[in-house]
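User: Quick sanity check before I run a bigger batch. Here is a single chain. Can you write out its predicted 3D structure?
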Amino acid sequence: VCLARLTSLTRLALESNLVGNLGLEAMTRALTANTTLKEVFLYNNDLDDDSMREFAAMLTNKSQLQTLGLEYNRVRSRGANHVFEALNALPNFERLFFSHNLISEASAQQIRALLQLSTSLKEIRLNDNDQIGDEAGLAIAEGLLRSPSIKVCHLSDTKISGKSAAKLCEVIRSRSSTLKDLDISSNLIIMDDIEM
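Assistant: Done. Predicted structure follows.
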């Protein structure tokens, strides 16, 4: 309720609360008219897919949004895909933190599209989404290869293996790649299978 009058709010941090889906729904309604938000942090709030469609729709008029943090929740691909799609069109969006959720290979095309279509995205963190796997890893690598702006990509503990790592080597070797920081720790990669 207090957020409804904060149409000039630029930063909202609600980490480690018990916002839950009902709280996210109320927050989404309250912030619909706000066009000045630059940063939203909702880490560790017991969020899942149920409210993500409405939340993502609310983001579409946030042309100033630069950073979104949704780490340590229970969001699956069904909900995450709405967020990925909403962020595609935001002209100033730079950083997405979506680690420690339940994102799977069902988000492969949406993540690739976000990487390819966004001209401002600089950082994406998807660590500890252990259902992503190799097929999505390949799509993400393809998105990185075609990204005009990405500098940081963290994919630790996402169950990618040599197939994805080989494609990521292409990204590293590419002269046109903007990537500077790649974290693929704690995966299923055997270096003998990869030609750097």
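The chain has a mean pLDDT of 94.

User: Great, the batch can go ahead then.
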